[in-house]
Amino acid sequence: MDMKSAAADFMKGFPVAPKFVADAMLGKLAKWLRVMGYDTIYRSRYRTGQIQSLVGEGRILLTRDTRSAREDERAVLIRSDHVGEQLRQLKEEACISEDHARWFARCTICNEPLVEAPVEAARENVPEYVFFEHPAGIRFCPSCRRFFWSGSHRQRMVAQLEAWGF
Is the pLDDT of residue 97 over 60? Predict the structure, then answer.
């Protein structure tokens, strides 16, 4: 089984969740939605018609632009400039939930579902102490080939999400 198939199988264990496309003004929100396990496409620039195409595939547009929000009945106009408030808005509007089991299941860089890292690849690509402390908890992005593990960075992210009410 290839890495992308393994990632797809891993994500099948979760209930169907909304998929998002975040406009160019919402990069931080996109990153935190990915941390929370939500499939969120984000680009700093989109080609003409690309956002509309992604919405046509069933994604919910997240935007700070009132005109864009008016043009699509499923779009969510994000009111705040602050990520915590943006996430709370999405929770209050029932776009996202507090499903902690989904957290840290997607690459925060490229949005791909993470898979269990092959042991030898992990041994060669993560700090030695990480490999020996968390051998079963090392995840891998099959697209950008980055490795992820439960370290102090992740603990800080969890603390931030909890501070925001998640």
Answer: yes
Mean predicted confidence (pLDDT) in 31-58:
96
The single residue listed with the structure tokens 């507090």 is: 98
The mean predicted confidence, pLDDT, of the chain is 89
Given a contact cutoff of 8 angstroms between Cβ atoms, the answer to whether 3 and 115 are in contact is yes
Q: pTM of the entire structure? A: 0.84
Helices H, strands E: what count in the chain?
Answer: 8, 7
User: Per the structure block, which two tokens stand in for 23?
Assistant: 């406009």
Q: Which two structure tokens, joined as six digits, stand for 127?
A: 């700090």
**What's the confidence (pLDDT) of residue 15?**
52
Distance between CA atoms of 27 and 31, rounded to whole angstroms? 6
User: In which region does residue 130 sit, left (phi positive, over 0), alpha (psi from -120 to 50) or beta (all else)?
Assistant: alpha
Q: Which amino acid is at 86?
A: Q
SS3 of 5, please?
helix
Residues in the chain: 166
